[in-house]
Amino acid sequence: MHLLRGAVRTYAWGSRTAIAEFTGTPSPTPYPQAELWFGAHPGDPAWLQTDAGERSLLDALRADPDGELGPAVRGRFGDTLPFLLKVLAADEPLSLQAHPSTEQAVEGFAREDRMGIPVSAPNRNYRDRSHKPELLVALSNFEALAGFRPAARTVELMRALAPQALDPFINLLCGASDADGLRALFTTWITYPQPGLDTLVPAVIDGAIGYVRSGKQEFAAEARTVLELGERYPGDAGVLASLLLNRLRLAPGEGIYLPAGNLHAYLHGIGIEVMANSDNVLRGGLTPKHVDVPELLRVLDFRPANDVVVRPESLRDGTELVYRTPAPEFAASVLTISGEHLGHEIDAPTRHDGPQILLCIEGAVTVHAKTSAVPLEQGSAAWVAADDGPVRLEAAQPTRLFRVTVGI
C-alpha cells in the first residue's frame, strides 16, 4: 500500500479554487484545475509515494501485474486497471456528449483504423475498444443535464419558454413514441443550417429571458441553463438540445450513472467521477472540439431516462454506502467512521481480493494493510494492491473515505 499522488488536468472549464481547496493546496491556482486523476491511464497516471521515490502506478502494474491487480482481475481485464477515479471541478459547462457501448466501440475503433486515422488525431472518435460507463457522485451541489426528458414534459417546457419560435418543432414530438419523436427533433436541431440556428437560438434565449423575468419557477432552472449556454456558445445547436434533457441538481452524496448512449453535460460543481478506463467520447455541441453528428446519432439512446439520480444504499449499520451500478469495471462506495468507531481500528468491508483506491473526502484516517500503514487526510488517496488487502481503518475524528474497487 502506498500514498497515491493524483495527476492534475488543466482545462478551461475547470476551477482555480475547488480542487486546490479540496486537497489543501494554495488557492487560487494559476490555471483552472479541471480534473484530478487517480488511476493508471496511459495519458496521465497517478504516482505511488515509495521509500525509493515516486513511481508511476502504470509502471508498477507493468512490473508486477499479479501482485498489484490479482489473478482474478487479470483474468477478466488483462494487465490493465479497468477503472479510473477522478475528482472533477466544473466552473463552466462541459461539452454535450455521450459514450458508446462495447460493441459500438469495437466496431468504431476498427473502422477508424481502416481509415488510417491516427489514435491521437483530434478527429478520432474511438481511441480504444472499450465502453465508458460513468458514475458521478456530488461533493457539492452539482448541476448537470443527463438523459432525455419524457416528450410530454418537454412540450410543456418549449411552450412555456418560446412558443412562437418552437411551435413548428413541437409536432415532431407528437404522434410518435417518445424515443422516435426525440430522435426526430434532436436530429433536426443538430443538423439545422447555421443561418437557421442564428435566428432560432436567439429567439429561444429571448423567451428564456422573459420567463426568468416573469418570476415563474416551474422551468426556472431550464431557462437559466439556456441563458448560460447561449452566452457561452451563441448559435450552437447544443443550446437547443439542452431543452430535451433532464435538468438535475444533485445534493452532496447523490450521483448520476451514465450508461452507453446517455446524452449529458456537466454544468457546475465538484464531484467524484468513476469510469471505465476509456477515452471514447462522441460530442454533440457546446465545444470547439470535434463533433461527428452521424456517429453521435448512431450511439445515442433516445428513450426517456426517468430515474437518473443514484442514491447510495446503506450497508453494515451505515458504515458503508454503496452506489450500485451494472458496470463490471468498477464498484464505488463511501466508508464512514464516526460515533463508537472513533479511536478504534475497524475492518473495511471486503468485496474481493482485487486492488482498491481509497480517497479521503472528509476528516483524517490511518489505513492499515498487510505490509504498511499510511495516513490520509481530505484530498489524499491510497493505492492498495491486491496482495496487500484487506485493510483496517482508524480515525480520531468523523471521517469519510470514497472507495473504488473492481466490480464483482
Oligomer: single chain
Instruction: Based on Cα principal axes, name the global outline.
Output: globular
With helices defined by DSSP (H or I, 4 residues minimum), what is the helix count?
12
The assigned CATH architecture of the largest domain is Sandwich
What's the total number of strands?
24
Distance between the termini: 21 Å
CATH class annotation of the largest domain: Mainly Beta
CATH superfamily of the largest domain: Jelly Rolls
Q: Could you give a short account of the major beta sheet? A: 9 strands, antiparallel
- Classify the beta-strand content into a percent band: 25-35%
What CATH calls the topology of the largest domain is Jelly Rolls
Mean pLDDT: 95
- Can you tell me the number of structural domains? 3
Topology:
Blueprint: E1 2-5, E2 7-9, H1 18-23, E3 35-38, E4 47-50, E5 53-56, H2 57-63, H3 65-69, H4 71-77, E6 83-90, E7 96-98, H5 102-114, E8 134-138, E9 142-148, H6 151-161, H7 163-170, H8 178-190, H9 194-214, H10 220-232, H11 237-241, E10 245-250, E11 255-258, E12 264-276, E13 282-285, H12 293-299, E14 309-310, E15 313-315, E16 320-323, E17 331-337, E18 345-347, E19 356-362, E20 364-368, E21 373-377, E22 381-384, E23 392-394, E24 399-405
Antiparallel strand pairs: 1-4, 1-22, 2-3, 3-6, 4-5, 6-12, 7-13, 8-11, 8-12, 9-10, 9-12, 11-14, 15-16, 16-17, 17-24, 18-23, 19-22, 19-24, 20-21, 20-23
